Amino acid sequence: MLHLNTAGLVRRSLLLSFVLAGIASCSDNEPALVEAVIENTGSSRSAAQIHAATLVLDAHADIVIPSTSRAYMSADGSSKVVPAKMRAGGVDAVVMSVAVGPGPRTKEGDAAARAEADEKIAAVHTLIEESQGQVVMATTSDEIIAAHEAGQSALILGFQNARSLQGDVSAIDEFYAEGVRIFGLNHLGHNAFSDSSRPEFSGETGSFEVTEEHGGLSALGVAAVERINDLGALVDVSQLSKAATLQVLELTDSPIIASHSNAKTVSDVTRNLSDEEIDRIGENGGVIHVAAFKGYLINISEPAFIEKLVALRVAAGISEEYNYPFELYWEIDDLAQRSAFTTAVSELLGPATTDNMIEHIDYIVGRIGIDHVGIGNDFNHGSGIDDYNDASEAMNLTEGLLERGYSEEDIQKIWSGNFLRILDAAAGI
User: Fold this and answer.
1) Matching CATH number, 55-298+350-427, of 3.30.70.2470, 3.20.20.140, 3.30.460.80, 2.10.109.10
2) Which one of 206, 225, 264, 343 has the largest count of C-beta atoms within 10 Å of its C-beta?
3) Count of CB atoms situated within 10 Å of the CB of 27
4) Mean pLDDT across the chain
């Protein structure tokens, strides 16, 4: 099922222990430090130098608030993209997503979603204020680059789930005024704006499957895409249904982003992008950001695996009929049982590494080119793999890409160059 490079994993883990802390502690990335790192670790000169010189940007992580499940956090209970981990991993910028989950599609439910979104924005501002200048908010490529050059960590605000808009497209302007520059209309189920890539219960078949409510985007969704374009922000198609994604691509005036999506042909789950979507995103000039989320990375089509997964679903009391391992975990009311289910599924999936991420990168690059792929890990919402479980381990991906033949220019495009290009394009720069 998996194609692991064990020797590479061990070597890159050693690299992490010695290299990244040293690079991150030196604001100027002195050549002497790189030389010392190479001598102590045996790492290639190119890997150390390239990572130190690259603006490393993660296009998707969730904002941590007190109600965030500890199951999504690092082992120490902190965010996987806390500034200290960013510095340790040489990560210069992260898109922090103002994400809310599914909930009652009522006035009260939407109000609760907006309150959660506001709480998350406030949490980001508090983090910045408490950083004493080490962390800054950025809304443009120039600001991201300036922060990198100043040795600061840059945070960019994203948005996920139009429930927070409370049915009012003009609320997009309010989030934009707060600094949001990436807007995703959906998260974990249909809403008033768009259909989801996630399975929904079908009354006709009596099973959970990908169903349509709006046939893609609703009239509200169309208006939202138009308003996001008008503001010069990016439309994020991760989590949208295939029909909704294709409609966005027809409507948009600028390149789009898939902030945390992988390739369906490599891992056949509903959450991943089909070849048609990938091809259209390439034609649009957009960028697909691959996630370090094992449920999106691994081929789960083997009958023996499916049989074991069905048994776990039955034991948890959730539907058997869907093709993404973790789907519908939120329907398990008891938090301990929910955690037990997701842990059991993770153990069933087995290990995943940056090698699996690079399989998806290879596939996307092969179809639409190096200018259309990036990294969006989905940290703080269950993401993380054996050698890339938080921001501190970002170097492992650079090392893996170099081993697979990607050039320094390629790696710089993957880490941030492609993202910065479409951010500028959306803003009309």
Assistant:
1) 3.20.20.140
2) 225
3) 9
4) 85
Q: Which residues contact 117 (CB under 8 A, 6 or more apart)?
A: 98, 100, 159, 164, 175
Beta bridge partners of 217: 194
> For residues 49 and 404, what is the distance between their CA atoms, to the nearest angstrom?
17
Tokens 């089509």 -> residue? 301
Q: Which residue has the tokens 């374009």?
A: 229
Confirm if 188 and 166 have CB atoms less than 8 A apart.
no
Q: What are phi and psi of 252, to 5 degrees?
A: -70, 145
Task: Identify which has the larger pLDDT, 316 or 287.
Answer: 287
CB 147 within 8 A of CB 95: no
- d(Cα 396, Cα 4) in Å, to the nearest integer? 14
Total residues found in the chain within this entry: 429
Domain ranges across the chain: 55-298+350-427
What would the mean pLDDT of 42-71 be, rounded to a whole number? 81
Looking at per-residue pLDDT, the higher value among 286 and 2 belongs to: 286
CA–CA distances in Å: residue 369 to residues 43, 51, 110, 255, 291: 28, 22, 40, 15, 18
Q: What is the DSSP string of 151-198?
A: T-EEEEEEEE-GGGGTT-TTHHHHHHHTTEEEEE--SSS--SSB-BSS
Name residues whose C-beta falls within 8 Å of residue 345's C-beta, 6 or more positions apart in sequence.
295, 309, 312, 325, 326
> Using CA atoms, how far apart are residues 397 and 243, in angstroms rounded to an integer?
32
> Residue 141 to residues 138, 145, 226: CA-CA distances in angstroms?
8, 6, 22
Angle between helices 335-349 and 303-316 (to 10 degrees): 170
pTM for this prediction = 0.85
The phi, psi pair for 262, rounded to 5°, reads -115, -175
